[in-house]
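Action item from last meeting closed. Structure (209 res):
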């Protein structure tokens, strides 16, 4: 199979369990689950519907604050943002609205508003989204096309480690998680698209245009 991020031939199995095979790209270091194991739209939405994303859940807000706090500090007053993949209970967008920013939301299943994908934004957020992307290159390029010069994209996704760490990694067990990014993957993305990269902790990535 070809790497869905950089297009390099990626047919060497990096890891295999009873559920599926995983391939790690020699160029961009993206790890991809065997495409034959990807869930269909119906199965995918059924799994998403079980997520309990409640804006009133303080624990969920604390989780999202890992990307909210560093991103807020970097934004101009009243910046306009897009929460891409907002999910069944949009919360991060509400947190930014409460802080005085204007927000749009988009989600393939829960807020499919194609008009918001034609605006320009000071910042874009994608929390627990990138690991679900079947076509990461196309989606990344689409989002970067919406980002104003100097704009920031805030991403939350767990970063993949080496073979030993990956073999026991809980994150790969979700069947809707099909692409796994490492530090090296985001370094490749930053070089490819001339972005400034900042990685905060184990799962927060900021890309500045």
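Sequence:
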């Amino acid at each position: 199979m070809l790497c869905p991020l950089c297009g390099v031939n990626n047919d060497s199995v990096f890891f295999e369990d009873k559920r599926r095979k995983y391939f790690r790209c020699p160029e961009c270091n993206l790890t991809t689950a065997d495409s034959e194991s990807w869930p269909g739209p119906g199965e995918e939405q059924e799994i998403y519907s079980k997520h309990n994303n409640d804006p009133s859940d303080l624990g969920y807000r604390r989780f999202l604050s890992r990307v909210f706090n560093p991103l807020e500090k970097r934004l101009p007053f009243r910046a306009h943002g897009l929460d891409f993949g907002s999910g069944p209970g949009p919360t991060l967008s509400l947190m930014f609205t409460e802080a005085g920013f204007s927000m749009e939301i988009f989600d393939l299943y829960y807020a499919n508003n194609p008009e918001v994908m034609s605006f320009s934004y000071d910042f874009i957020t994608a929390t627990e989204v990138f690991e679900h992307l079947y076509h990461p290159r196309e989606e990344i390029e689409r989002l970067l096309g919406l980002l104003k010069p100097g704009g920031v994209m805030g991403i939350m996704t767990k970063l993949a480690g080496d073979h030993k760490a990956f073999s026991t990694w809980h994150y790969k067990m979700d069947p809707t998680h099909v692409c796994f990014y490492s530090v090296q993957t985001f370094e490749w993305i930053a070089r490819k698209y001339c972005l400034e990269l900042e990685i905060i902790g184990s799962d927060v990535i900021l890309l500045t245009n």
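Note appended to the action item: The mean pLDDT is 93.
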